[in-house]
Amino acid sequence: MDFVIFILAMGALVVGADFIVNQSERVALHFNISEFVIGATIIALGTSLPEMAASVSANFSGKPEIALANAIGSNIFNITMVLGTIFLITKNINPNRDFFAKDTTWALVPIMLFLLMAIDGSISFFDGILLLLLMGAYILFLLNDCHNLDNNLEEIKKKDDFSWSKIILFLAIGFIFVIVGSHFAIESASSIALDFGLSEWVIGIIMISFGTSLPELVISVSAAIKGKVDMAIGNVIGSNLANTTLVIGFSALVKDLPVSLVENVFDISTMVASTILLIYITANKLYSKPAGIALLIMLALFLEHTFNTMSSAKVLS
Length: 317
Prior knowledge:
mainly alpha; A middle domain of Talin 1; two-stranded antiparallel ribbon; globular
C-alpha cells in the first residue's frame, strides 16, 4: 500500500509543479520576460518546487536525511539523466547562449559553499539565509544580463488568453497538489525504508530525488524537441542552482540540517563531479551524443553504488 501511496503522491507533485510552471510562464510572457530567463528562472524554480516541498516537509517531520539526500540526488539526476537524455535525442545542438561564460560556474559556487558549510556537520539557519541570498544574486544577474527580448514574445502574448482569475485558480490548485503530495511522499517513503531495512538517506537519494526530477526531465526534453535548447539547458542549470540554494536553504530555515561528509562521500562527490563535467561540456561546447553517453555512464555508476548499498543494508538487517 505504501508503494501505491508513494506513486500517487509523486504524481501529485509532478502535476502540481506542471500547473505552477505553466501559469508562471504565462505571467512571464505577459510581462515580456525573455524565453531564456523563463527557462532559467520561472520554469527552473517551478520544476524545483517538488524538491523544495519534499525536503522542507521531510526536515519539518524530523527526517533531515531525506531532505538533504533529495537535493543532492536531484542535482545528480538533473545533470546525468536529464542532460544526458537531451544530448542523445537532440540533433545539432547549437545554443545561442554561452552557458560556460555566464551560467555553469554559477552552478558550482553554491556546491562549494555547501561543502564549506557542511564541514562543521550541519547546515544552520544562517547558512540557509546565505544560500537563499546566492539564488537571489543569480536571478538579478540573469535579469541584468538579459537585454534582448525574444522576438516571438509579442506574437505569443497576442495569442494568449490572459486571465488573472484563471491563473490564480490554477496556481492555487498546483500548490495544493505540491503540498499534499510532498507530505504523503515523505511518509510513504519512510514506511518503505523501514519495511525494507533501508536508510532514509538511500530512499531520499533515489526514490524521492528521481521522482522530483521528473518535471525537469519532461519539460527539458519537450523544450529540446521543440528546438528550444537554451530553455532546456537553462532549466537544468537553474534547477540545480535552486536545489542547492533554495531547497537546502529553506530546509535549513525549518531546522538545522545535519550533514556527514564522510558517510555520504560517494553521493556528494558524484554531485561535485557531475557539476564539473557540466562545466567541461559547456566550456568546450560538447553538446553531442558522446557527451550524453558520458553523463549516462556517470548515472549508471551512481545507481550501481546505491543499489549495492541497498543490498548490503538488507543483508545486515
